[in-house]
Design brief:
By secondary structure, chain A is α/β, with parallel strands linked by helices. Chain A contains 14 helices and 14 strands.
Chain lengths: 358, 358, 358, 358
């Protein structure tokens, strides 16, 4: 933790795509972060040159921090982040592919929330509690140049809750098969996102590309780092995704088939006791426990439990036997905190704590 | 169709529990039914003696019919329905068990929406398009007395959509395994039902007893009538039930494992072309087609599609292969029309059309 | 009613902007209209040349009528409606000003739902039950040429409910002052309209331009036709407009100051007994009574009462004395039926019934 | 502040009706209060004897504090609070009248959220920023016995936001007339409160007794303490109350008639600069500023602004001239924080800070 401690100064970071809904979450969470400070904000050319307060349509529940409000937004080009080794990207998928590559080529470490590079073989797709070792791919991207740039990615907002719950089960019992049905909040669609007319008194049983993402990303995250790449986990997954009229919090109905014998109590125990590297390192955004198990029959519920432990906990309930596969349960996680901005910040903290800032 | 045709008079029917939310649906649907007319309304002792308009807290979107408004509500005792051979029960499970038995013992044919007698071996649990032959159990209950009474039941509101979709698949390909996750509307919980505070910006991943009902009822409905009873279908089912903030319409994400080889096109074809006895008999509440298949990727949706064909169609969409079982798809059905009052009325129509009125 | 009767043929009409949400309502309502038939559909250049089913993102609860589905959409130019004397416009305000003028110049009678021409001195702003005589402005626009075109407008969706309730009160007691607070459904904002993220578990106490429209339009509609123009009603109005998370139906809390003495009973009586020219002429879309008074303390409510009388009734409840002005009450009206498409169709019916088709 | 300071111990307090929704809010807010600690919890006889965790159906977003979870719930009788001079009542109106009187007679200072005693001439109805001097009625109730008990009340949840905004206007310009239309969240109705079926995709334009409460309570709170009683403010108020599908936060559309000349700027200035005794005394629950003025046209909105300043700020927006009265604006306040539990705790803090604990 030398950076902050040694010279008493915080690490300057940039936020790319700072005016969108995930970008606003980054601003709000980094505004008083103990390690990082916002040194640059970028957005589209239309916003460049304006003060942030003027460029943004702020929709967060916490007020826009005064000092950030007056920062001048810049165009999304590597020059904008000259002083920032670490860059958080909340860019739209439409531009993220090229922009993030340009920042990495210019020597930045880009922690991205966009889908574009997640499945690139050389790009780590990281949930800090699950596969911190995948960060070794950073070295590969740098090709031996310690001050080189790299792209690191955060998974899709509905994948995260799933893999957090699967990881300890996989370690203990080997997960072979997963069936998951999601009920996803509207904030997952960004801004403007889904029109009110399409979701009030309604649900939409289809989210373009989402089922494929869950299936592919889960196999990569639960995969093993070997030699110079990720060996995907051999897992059969079927996902069905629904958009429901809820503001925040994705709820998943999960069934799993296991290779090893298990019991409801054994599942609960391995879930409850799960802990990872962020917990050992006690980084600022790490929850006390990555998984919370609730025993009440009606839990977890999005409005009641999405904010537990700073919105960073995967909340599990209703663990029981499944007549078709072996066990079934419900998982809730906050899609714009763990599933987006705060999850990506935790990745940034891990990069720094592991001394990978170069 | 002799009753109406021969003497030009409609068949008098009674509604038990007429002031609750399902009872109100019965009133609204029977008010201008071509075969039946409301001759008696019963409710709790508290309401007995009052005019219906005064006893009810009417919450239907159609206005309370004038002539029903002035009928006097009676206590729920067999005497109340003296002139009515056919009786529709919207009674709460708390009293339905005993009351319905009393009406049957007094010689009435009770078509019930309550859960109490559904799994009784001698009581048919009927979806008219699926297992009309199960009505033969009426004879068994009558024990040879053609003017004897009997109880016939309508399934749980989330079971109906499921079995309507499973039946043609079972006939064509033999369904071995079913995984179903439901997203159920609040009207399914009756009145007062679930408090607004528990469901606004929220969902509840648990509905007491619901998963067991879906699993058991499906096996009975898809079972075969043999000799003197129902031989349950050998089906492995796993259900996970959620309450979501939607007024009407239950949506189900279903995966199925089949014994016979099939294709997406073959599934769509057998679903689309499915037709049953009510369609052949053209009874008044029978939809043109019990199953509608929609091809748009975002269909079916509760608000857009729940009322198709008078709320009697099971609307199927997103038929595709499933990596875990064989195929998966989405089913929507209207829980208070097909899933309660209008579904029960269709059973009543079938009883009459089959000449089982005694 | 000679057109339909004499030659047995319906009157061909065009719908401008047929793919938007109000355009879809026009399609759905005109698909089986007894007087009119859809002969032309127009939309933006992007949609021109496609079949309607392909060009539209259909969001109506009733299915898209088959014969309309196959009509080819045309660009929004007067040529498109060559055979249609009568044209219904569901165009966006961004293009309605110029386009509607072009159709009128080409000899069409344009009944518009857009705001652009409503306050033009020569354009009638009509609610058929209130100011059918304002249609005399059509002659003025035609400048003596009986086959000339003209523009006729339908008021804003929240104005209509208000003026329907004010008209009989004004006739009986002279309304001097009005305070109105609206709670408006999301469908009033069109498609895509307001994002779900802005309105779930929320309301927005501001709708750009809406308060000014209510104030100005009410004075024009309640004004008198004199000589060659409309003399606005001398009414002091204050409006406060809110968007609330409801699909359809605008609810208004209204207080009025009256010049003549009155009583709650007298108000109820004049509201109840109100009737207008469409009722006398019995045109197809005319409700039996333009105003329904409900006596239950909790009425009117959008979901329960918006569809009464085909969504064409202004539903009034809670009439009582006001300590600040004289009386207060609640008005509900359906914003996309009476307040948009069906309201405009009623204007079209009135034009024909009055022999103004030229 | 001697109590806590002198002996380092917190003041023991009791919560009456601790298992209801407002009771739970009290528990959650007092669990780590710097001055007070929960020494007793009461509920109905049915819950008495159980541990709190077992007796309560916890619906708060923050977890149930561990030490409170294990406290044993007692019956609601004065003995239960023997050690607690200060008692917070979250009792239902059905029992609050008698119970609170019994506690006061037994020497307790009861700060109540129930409506029963609010309009008693000898009972202060207090908003700490507005009328702290009304607490002098405590002496009257005690009849000279400094250790005697007394009842102090907190206003209705929709009254509070209104009077907070009216107070500075009244001081500066003399408010003569008020028209207010409320849009109230469902949490205001408690638990179970309003059924989901009545409010999804709907609103209810009537809340029994609410309009009368707003009108009467506002006049008392803004009244002057003279000699031995409260002289009510001479204010003409008209209130119209609506329940809307929002979880928390009451929004009010207010128009005011003023005696003195004013301007939009002058109103904004007196609202912005308003401050009261809790701010001078800096008690723990006092917000920095009781009134926040927002300038964006779409503010305030319940979901975005209800939690500002701990849910204790009245948030005002859209101040503008009114054609009917003089000015109009929108006020938002959090109904279960400022409008119930935290508002009552602020009253308790004021009682202690003023040395009225006896």
């Amino acid at each position: 933790m030398s950076d902050v401690a040694s010279n008493g100064r915080k690490i300057p970071v940039a936020i790319l795509g700072a005016t969108g809904s995930v970008g606003q979450r980054f601003v709000s969470l980094l505004a008083d972060h103990p390690w990082f400070e916002i040194a640059a904000l970028t957005a589209s050319d239309r916003s460049a040159g304006k003060e942030y307060a003027e460029a943004v349509g702020w929709v967060q529940e916490s007020p826009l921090p005064d000092d950030v409000a007056r920062q001048v937004v810049q165009a999304t080009e590597p020059d904008a982040a000259r002083e920032c080794r670490l860059v958080f990207s909340a860019l739209d998928a439409g531009v993220a592919g090229t922009c993030e590559r340009a920042f990495a080529d210019a020597g930045h470490l880009v922690v991205s929330n966009a889908r574009n590079h997640r499945m690139d073989p050389s790009v780590p797709l990281v949930v800090p509690e699950i596969n911190p070792d995948h960060l070794a791919l950073i070295e590969l991207q740098r090709g031996g140049n310690p001050s080189g740039g790299a792209i690191v990615t955060n998974p899709n907002c509905s994948t995260i809750g799933l893999v957090l719950a699967l990881k300890p089960l996989h370690d203990a019992f080997v997960v072979k098969t997963v069936n998951v049905v999601t009920m996803q909040a509207v904030s997952g669609a960004g801004l403007p996102g889904i029109p009110a007319m399409q979701i009030l008194d309604n649900l939409v049983p289809y989210i373009p590309g989402e089922e494929e993402k869950i299936e592919a990303e889960s196999r990569k995250i639960l995969g093993r780092f070997v030699d110079d790449g990720i060996l995907e986990c051999e897992l059969t997954i079927s996902a069905q995704c629904n958009r429901v009229p809820i503001v925040d919090g994705h709820t998943l109905c999960v069934s799993v088939g296991l290779e090893q014998p298990a019991s409801v109590e054994a599942l609960r125990e391995v879930l409850r006791s799960f802990s990872g590297e962020p917990q050992r390192l006690r980084t600022p955004s790490a929850p006390d426990r990555p998984i919370l198990c609730l025993d009440e029959p009606g839990a977890p519920q999005p409005r009641l439990h999405r904010n537990l432990d700073g919105g960073m906990a995967a909340v599990v309930g209703r663990i029981r036997r499944c007549p078709v596969l072996d066990f079934k349960f419900v998982v809730l996680s906050h899609n714009t905190l763990r599933g987006a901005a705060r999850g990506a910040i935790l990745v940034g903290e891990l990069i720094r704590a592991r001394g990978l800032m170069g």
